[in-house]
Amino acid sequence: MTAPTPPRKPGEPLQPVHVPMLKIIEWGIVGWAVALVVTLLVPALHEGDRSWWPWTCVAGMLLGGIGWLYVRRGRGNAQDAV
């Protein structure tokens, strides 16, 4: 854990907040994986009208993987946006 920053003085520019995007994306992928396991283990969650639920979890994991690769390559940060 980092030390708290001192109060900002009037006229001093705001500093960007560091957000660990890779960790957030990784936890999202893990969440989708857990949801996939649950939907496959509980028959009521993947039969009948809910047969598409497991595929939603797979799509979430795949899109999360694409987002992870995008951020990992450095294009998902705002460092060069200024």
TrEMBL record:
Entry keywords, A to Z: Membrane, Transmembrane, Transmembrane helix
Claim: Transmembrane helix is one of the keywords in the record: yes
Transmembrane spans: 24-46, 52-71
Name of protein: DUF2530 domain-containing protein
Species annotation: Intrasporangium calvum
